[in-house]
Amino acid sequence: MKVVIVGAGYGGLRAVEKLVKRKNVEITLIDKNPYHYLQTEAYGYIAGNFDICDITVDIKSWCEGFSRDIHFIQDECIGIDTNNKTIQTKGQTILYDELIIATGAKTNFPAFIEGLKEFSHGVKVLSRAYQFKTQFEEIIYKKVKNSDHKEFNIIIGGAGLSGVEIAAEMAYISQKFINSIGIKKGNIHIYLIEAYDSILNGMDSYIVKNTLIRLDDLGVKVMTNSFIDSVSQNTVHLKTGENLEFDFMIFTGGIRAIGINDIFDVKKNRLNQFIVDSYLRVEGFEDIYAIGDCAEIRNLKGDILPPTSQIAEQCASVAAKNILRKLDNQPLIKYDGKMDGMFVALGGEYAVGTMFDTLKLKGYMAYLLKKIITKSYHYGLKLRLNNSFRTRR
Q1: Of the residues 72, 116, 150, 352, which has the maximum number of CB atoms within 10 A of its CB?
Q2: What angle, rounded to 10 degrees, do the helices at 161-181 and 205-217 form?
Q3: So what's the architecture of 2-107+255-340+375-392 in CATH?
């Protein structure tokens, strides 16, 4: 059986790991980038706590770390021929028996907010995160170099998980910087703007409450019920008529699926995500699965699940199992996932989180548990890389 996986994000890599155990499955992994980007660590990278090697993994080397061949193709998919069961990339045509689409999503810059895409940054793409990190470091450099105490405004649009973590980490670094060199407090202002009446919409009230307390302690100016009307160069215009000047701005206010989602003419939602059935198959096809952020993922109650790495990996496991069960002429299993836990990094050695609906933590212990979870994932990737290096010697 030939299984093609498009997208080497959290879901794509997990699908490879689940399928590789079966020798009668030929696996091809396709991604336009040569690296796997750990988006969940973007907050620390932007704030300067992580280097680029901490948030990227070379896909080819990772594939070579398995005891059998995984065919990795660095190319961009430009079409799907479902009649002939082929994927077209810019360089070749690839046959498949079963297809898993795991291409993720990008930051959604709503077209009705004039100037938003032009004057702000997202972090879903590594190049965008790099640009933002560079600009933040430039601000710190200017504060060290100059003694005029110029004020800097940083605006983060969208108070979901990414927006909150980035705001908290940048505020912590800024506060640490201010205290270490003794400049006047208040020179670096961080604004977190949210259209809803609360940050972290839909999350556990314990997380929301304690996150707000932490952000206040860090000096982050949280503005809820604040709708961005337009963005011009260095200014955010709110629907209330208020204008906020900024030195740079990041937008994390939502996602939109692109890539294959733009060229594959099947049923999709308003975010351009594929509509999948309870087995995670794209509507109308029994041999095409969509997992992670590129699809609208629901549990068996019909609730839409958040686009997180945890959900993407759960989906990957179920899709892979169904492909193998189909190969063995066994009935498919339905996906009924849920969030087993959620931790929010809030600057320095501090986090807030819950696990299994019962355990609630904040402060250093929550930070430590989040760190263990993240390190375990990264450690697994590094082990595969180390195995690849040993094999090539």
Answers
A1: 352
A2: 30
A3: 3-Layer(bba) Sandwich (3.50)
Model-level pTM?
A: 0.90
What is the rounded distance in angstroms from the CA atom of residue 185 to the CA atom of residue 296?
A: 44
Alpha helices in the chain (DSSP H): 10-19, 42-46, 59-64, 116-119, 126-145, 161-181, 205-217, 260-263, 309-327, 364-392
Return the domain boundaries, the chain: 2-107+255-340+375-392, 116-251
Distance in angstroms (rounded) separating the CA atoms of residues 213 and 123:
25
Cα separations (Å) of 72 from 115, 266, 291? 38, 27, 19
- What was the pLDDT predicted at 147? 55
CATH no. for 116-251: 3.50.50.60
Distance CA 39, CA 308 (A): 10
Query: What pLDDT shows up at residue 3?
Result: 98
pLDDT-derived band at 242, boundaries 50, 70, 90? very high
